[in-house]
Amino acid sequence: MNKVTLTISIIALLGVILLTISRNNPETVENKKENPTETSYTDTVKTGNIAYVNIDSLVDSYSLYNELQTALMDKQARLSKEQESKMLSLQRKERELQQKVQERMMTQTTAQEQMQKLLALQQQYVQEGQMLELQLSEENQNITRQVYDSIYTYLKKYNVNKKYDLILSSAVVGGTVLLAKDGMDITGAVIKGMNAGYLSSGNIGK
């Protein structure tokens, strides 16, 4: 549930942007109609209006992501502390029971009954921990989808005027850009626009 995992998930989802923008390019569609049997293999690289976004920088600087991730990490820390407190309490009860048995302060039958209750409680805590882990994982996936939807929605709006044929993603892991001219990097403009839109949306802290 860490930032690296979330970033990689967003990178994978952003691959859809490339297909969508290229498919919505009228020029590309028209060329396909004129040459339906033309092979896609060529020694000549056709240039177009292309830009890319550094997804690592975008996610790290996006206010919505940082707010959601901080809230999730705080929740995880709180729940982990609660689970740890329960397990420590259980261990304390087990030591007390063992001490009573050693000091013969209860019968063997009573001790066995108490131990069964503690074992059942331990199993309950383990199941609660597994359920919480699943819950946090689902919430992390929801963050991934929400951040992706936000990025995709903004890029579609951003591209109305910019009219890029392709918007690629660059990242340390899983990116599609190995080398590009500096002028093709629109990360700063996208970050500025997305944060401005989020700040003006009135959803901060909600």
Strand order of the largest sheet: 1-2
- Biggest sheet record: 2 strands, parallel
User: First CA to last CA: what distance?
Assistant: 21 Å
Strand content: under 5%
Instruction: Report the count of strand segments.
Output: 2
**Percent range for helical residues?**
over 70%
Q: What's the total helix number?
A: 6
**How many domain units?**
1
How does the helix and strand content classify structurally?
mainly alpha
Quaternary organization: single chain
What's the average pLDDT? 81
Radius of gyration: 27 Å
Low-confidence regions: 16-23, 26-45
Q: What coarse outline follows from CA principal-axis ratios?
A: rod-shaped
Output the helix-strand order: HHEHHHEH
